[in-house]
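user: Here is a favour to ask of a fellow structure person. I have my own habits and do not want them to colour yours. Could you put it straight underneath, so I can go through it closely?

assistant:
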Amino acid sequence: MKPNDLKPPFPKRENRCVTIDDRVWYIPDMDTQEESFVFPGWDHSSLFGNKNPVCVEYCSGNGAWIAQKAKENPNINWVAVEIRFMRTRKIWSKIKNYQLDNLIVICGEGMHATKKYFPESSIQHVYVNFPDPWPKRRHAKNRIIQSNFVKEMERITVPGGELTLVTDDENYSEQMIEVVSANPSFRSLFPKPFYVTDTKNYGVSWFEVLWREKGKLIRFHQFSKVPAL
């Protein structure tokens, strides 16, 4: 299957509605009918149809990293979150071509999808690989790793669940450490300086290859959700 083979179920309709279709979960930005949609559960036949652990990657890009993880880990359910439809198409084509029944892609804004539909304590591991660093100071507020995002990750992850953040941007790395460390429900799995520059069997994304070729240092941060007493 080619990316262009994916046709959205609402190409010209004005009243777009939340739809799960052929391993793509569409969550339109402007949706006057979304209140009628009820999340069926990760184990529903329209999603995974089993109770295997669920892992989520935000900012999935073309899906190279998460598709490979899904191929290597068939007993784990994977959710790619990507706001751009053109990138969603590329992820969908990998799902079809690799016959990945354990991978779905959400086409929509990540925080909206999470707040609106993700159940509490339903995610085993959250990954954010190379989010946009928004390097200009006046644009930093647009970064995905903010206190409200971390709070949502606290809500959706299971006790002992993990949050992994990867970036090539030093300033963003420092913000990630500061923001996540400020939430008492998470503790770093790495000692100070709270990141490593390489990790075995993590998988490779398009951005990691690009930045390593340019000589950039990659920082991996990993946090665990502390079980409630």
